[in-house]
Design brief:
alpha/beta, 7-stranded mixed beta sheet, 6-stranded mixed beta sheet, 14 helices, 18 strands, about 35% helix, about 25% strand, binds flavin-adenine dinucleotide
Length: about 400
Amino acid sequence: MRNTRILISGASIAGPTAAFWLNRRGFSTTVVERAPALRAGGQAVDFRGNQMDVLRRMGLLDEVRRHQTGMGPQLVLDESGKQVAAMPPEFISGEVEILRGDLNRILYDATKAGTEYVFGDWITSLTEVADGVEVTFAHGAPRKFDLVIGADGLHSGVRALAFGPEQQFRKDTGYHFAGFTAPNHLGLDRTGLIYNVPARGIMVGSKPGNATVNVGLWFSEAGLGYDRRDVGQQKKIVRELYRGIGWEMPKLLDALDNADDLYFDTLCQMHLEHYTKGRVALVGDAGWGAGPGGGGTGLAMMSAYVLAGELAAAGGDHTVAFPRYETEVRPAAEAGLKQAANAGPFLAPPTTVKIRRRNRSYKLLFRQPLLSLFLRMAVKAANTLSLKDYCAVRY
Ligand SMILES: Cc1cc2nc3c(=O)[nH]c(=O)nc-3n(C[C@H](O)[C@H](O)[C@H](O)COP(=O)(O)OP(=O)(O)OC[C@H]3O[C@@H](n4cnc5c(N)ncnc54)[C@H](O)[C@@H]3O)c2cc1C
């Protein structure tokens, strides 16, 4: 086997999954994560259709089920706070739903014995030479690896170093997202509430145990500038943009002040012509961040499985494996990007008329037979990629 020493950047979902499968296929893996420890937090992520297969193949489906959110319906409220529709769980929570942070921990636990994890560091340069990649780090000593995998999310550092600045791949939607944990002052029990005012969406959903809730805020705001690493500034922005909204918002804003897990990002998509370059490959959001509704977590894991499988099938020869990897995952990545392209206006319609129109369409959509039709469509997108049994494949 060639190219056995592999560096992975990012220890969230795609990174540990890549480590899991590469270890299993006989490669040795190092994961470097910018955060000082595993990052908790994040909303619930769900799996449906073929995405379930990757959990099954990893032997982690039972463990994921043990931590599943077990969410029931999410209630859509009108401007007076009255329920106008109920989203059935299979619509929003797929076949199994788990908090991102819980999934991250499960994947880390499944790989920590066989992988070298380095927290609090990141790659500062990648220099490809004939037999590998010379890598420098912000803190650690320079090292050489055979291949490098960027699993470092939407704003991937590996992508910037190997493919060029993010701007050339990025499509902004004009929408933004803020997610954090708050006390469950509403007493929600495995259920969620959805409330809108023009250009502002609010989703509150109970977390397992019901002591706390996940708050997800979607909003459009033209020309919003902010520092990605300045959480204080992000909290201030949210406070400003959600000021004066009644309903439960004042209490949620108070909880935001105390939240230590704010996730704040622009809803943008990454459109790349290639997911690999030389000895570098991108998996998950680093390659095709689609945004909410794009099945990003399932595909992040599936893409990591495919990359490891193709490398093993090619005896580690990346010049054979990388083009096959791209061919295999691109249709699913494109389907995810397409599916998520209009999530913003759907989650935070810009006017009262559009909020009411969306709520009316929810009422229809959540009734049979439209619901079955919609669920079949959602699974169709998730099923764009079928996982091969790579043990049997040799090129
Ligand atoms: C804390 C957190 C909360 C999230 N919350 C939500 C949410 O509420 N809703 C939603 O839709 N999506 C959320 N996401 C994104 C979601 O996890 C991904 O869309 C999806 O699961 C695909 O995962 P990924 O592993 O490709 O990327 P990500 O989950 O984004 O993981 C990327 C990882 O790389 C690390 N990283 C970033 N830059 C570097 C670097 N230069 N060097 C080394 N490591 C780096 C990050 O710290 C992170 O651990 C969240 C991600 C994180 C990390």
